Amino acid sequence: MTQKIMHAGDGIHASYGEAFAAFAGSLPAAEHAARAAAFDEFIQHGFPDDAIERWHYTNLSTLPKQAVRLAAAAALDTAPWQLGDCDEFIWINGEPQGAATDAAGLPAPDAHAGLAGLHRAFARPGLQLALGAGEQRERPVHALTISTAAEAGEMTHLAHRISLARGAKVTVILQNVGTDGAARFITQSLAADLADGAQLTLIRLQDESRATTQWLQTDVNVGRDARFELINVDFGGKLIRNDWRVKLLAPGAQTELAGLFGSDARAHLDNQYEIDHVAAHGTSRQFFRGLGFGNSKTVLNGRVVVQRGAQKTDSEQSIANLMLAKGAEIDAKPELEIYADDVKCAHGATCGQLDDTAVFYLRTRGVPEATARALLTYSFANDVIARIAHAGLRERIARRITAALGAELDLDALSFEDETVDATGDAL
Amino acid sequence: MAANPSEIEALVQNRKYEAGFITDIESESVPPGLSEDVIRLISAKKQEPEWLLEFRLKAYRRWLTMDEPRWAHVQYPKLDYQAISYYSVPKSMANAPKSLDEVDPKLLETYNKLGIPLKEQEMLAGVVPDKPQVAVDVVFDSVSVGTTFKKKLAEAGVIFCSISEAVREYPELVRKYLGTVVPFADNFYATLNSAVFTDGSFVFVPKGTRCPMELSTYFRINERNTGQFERTLIICEDDAYVSYLEGCTAPQRDENQLHAAVVELVALDRAEIKYSTVQNWYPGDEQGRGGIYNFVTKRGDCRGRASKISWTQVETGSAVTWKYPSCILRGDDSVGEFYSVALTHHHQQADTGTKMIHLGRNTKSTIVSKGISAGKGQQAYRGLVRVGEKAEGARNHTQCDSLLIGSQCGAHTFPYTEIRNPSAIVEHEATTSKISEDQLFYCRSRGIGEEDAVSMIVNGFCKDVFKELPMEFAVEAQKLLQVSLEGAVG
């Protein structure tokens, strides 16, 4: 056993060990060896600390401060979160509501060896979605994970998998919510494979409880002329780290990533986006909007890699941050790593405030200052929200933001039933 | 005039053929290796006071506990710090190189094309007195051997000498400022430098003085297997101004050489320091053999109100460059600037950029970085803009462009921004592109050869930076780029 374990304290790791022993008992014998190997990886590497460049702003080594146990099943009325016009899949504390599905193998995230080991050791199957060739679903798939108070335990680990065959098309809404203030530790992974011409729109809304530590890694492989679109909205949690990896593996692959983040609490949000242009003629777009509320620390790393031979790559990235309060911190890094010469790559990052002249203009029209500021902030965030095709979800996010802004906005005056939007959001 | 003009003339004469040879001077080197004894020996040879020896030993003891940084986007074999000789002093200056036949003709050709970058020879001899004068402090290996224009500078009250001399003549000044901008334990290479630095330049511009001429230093790495560890300290008191030029060349050799310099700038109230560099260390051959490892720590401290520090660099040499000239904007209303052109060709690698640390109110910084990558060169811009909690009204604009020439090269951008004050306005923009076929075709259809066309386009790409350079350097820099890019196209 390594020094890291000693450093973290034997008692803590003994507690992970006990949790693993209890969990392993519930697993089929065929999985035991792989799970145990994964757990050993975790023991060997521990949690990432800020000495690792990719974890420079997010230090998880202070995490194991208390004994851990897997969260127990709990019952809860899930109606408030259901969207209605979607195919619903729900997990409460990692326990599927309804029929459980089998996973096709263990997940393989790689953002950090120790963390990945922990996830592999404990992961239970989450959404397992496979679409056949040409299968196009009009109804979005809603994967809802809820963490709530249980009798004991605070860890859940879920692994999602989406596989789209040639020409398949679907919208998946992944929503992570928490109900109370209990300290929790959640890891999730999502692996998606898009075969030639497939289209996946992933909308992810994170609104975990104020004491939650969550790590999510998403890996998407995009095939020839396939398209992956992401809209990620981060509001909740205490310490949130998301690793997004998109690989454009064949010519004509496209991806468009959009993100909105802002916590109104003393929280730490870290989003690491990476687009890897492996093949030529790939297109990528990134569009991020950040809100710096009081005492929150938001980290955004947008990385674009253009591999040797990925000629004619077209990549753009735009990051804009709004600093709203003293005490907030925003750390943004738009990275480019380019190994091919015939490419078009541009990125821009800004950090600033609301335009005083715009505020003044609204005030001259009789809008109180607080409302004017809230309105302008909302419109800034709306650049991302408007990309969401699902009207019901869009409205929920809008209400969540206005609540955070603390000013009364007449949302009913804002139309959410936007007739210009089709199911894919293409018209936006 | 200088103490011995003929010596300096001889030295300057050497520059005419540029530096592709090892000057055969009887030199007094200590055997390779580093220990407390070596540091005591260096200190004793330089007749340093006790406090400086303590500074060196403190740094050395800290250095032993540090690890070499590996986060930069560069690759090179692990260095053996015990194989480097940490001290070498030329004994006789009259003993200049014997024959040009020893020079690699290829290098000679290159340098002939470059011409003499500055007309320092005439200036030293006073042939062209009506032109702007440049004072040169030549660092020949590790000990500064000639300083000119001392008298004229002395009349203005400006101190410009080697740092060893400054330690002897102005110990209280050196002691007051040395290590206050780059602390002895700052980073691996700076700490090594603090332990073993041999020489460098010292500039002190007193209150209200505008330095009457541009100050210039040439560095040469000359003795086989001696890393050069310069230490430069520039202090501008209230309302003072100085423009400092640094240029370097190095002889060809096969082993990799370490160059770990530290430059510290201190600007007090309303002072302004302009620091310009043309760096052309030996970059290794076309297969990537040899070349200098340039691991430099440069930092300026805008300590006073409304002070200004401006870095301008043209980086075309070195096998591996690891360099981030930075500004600490401590005084209210202070200004930091960074203008950079970096070129990597063949197997060169560069990880360079800047840090702008905004601490005072209404501080402003501008970053313009132009990276050119050709052949198998790898080029990274790494920059940090940090706005502290108390830095009300901080403003930054960063422009960061890369030009790619050839399908084997790489251009990378790692711009860190850390904003902790809601009134900050920070902007970063970056583009990456290649020389377009249209531009080339247009030039060629006007009868301009392909290489000239590329050079013209590249010069246009770099214009924003070249216009910040002093006139003579700007001319030199353009030629340097042209020569460095030869063979990159076609």
UniProtKB/TrEMBL annotation, chain A:
One of its GO terms (biological process) is iron-sulfur cluster assembly. InterPro entries: Fe-S_cluster_assembly_SufBD, SUF_FeS_clus_asmbl_SufBD_core, SUF_FeS_clus_asmbl_SufBD_sf, SUF_FeS_clus_asmbl_SufD. Signal peptide: none annotated. Residues 152-380 form the SUF system FeS cluster assembly SufBD core domain. Pfam families: SUFBD_core. Coiled coil: none annotated. PANTHER family: PROTEIN ABCI7, CHLOROPLASTIC. This is Fe-S cluster assembly protein SufD. The lineage of its organism: Bacteria, Pseudomonadati, Pseudomonadota, Gammaproteobacteria, Nevskiales. The gene is sufD.
TrEMBL record, chain B:
Residues 111-210 form the SUF system FeS cluster assembly SufBD N-terminal domain. InterPro entries: Fe-S_cluster_assembly_SufBD (IPR055346), SUF_FeS_clus_asmbl_SufB (IPR010231), SUF_FeS_clus_asmbl_SufBD_core (IPR000825), SUF_FeS_clus_asmbl_SufBD_sf (IPR037284), SufBD_N (IPR045595). Signal peptide: none annotated. Residues 219-461 form the SUF system FeS cluster assembly SufBD core domain. GO terms for biological process: iron-sulfur cluster assembly. Belongs to the iron-sulfur cluster assembly SufBD family. This is Fe-S cluster assembly protein SufB. It comes from Solimonas marina.
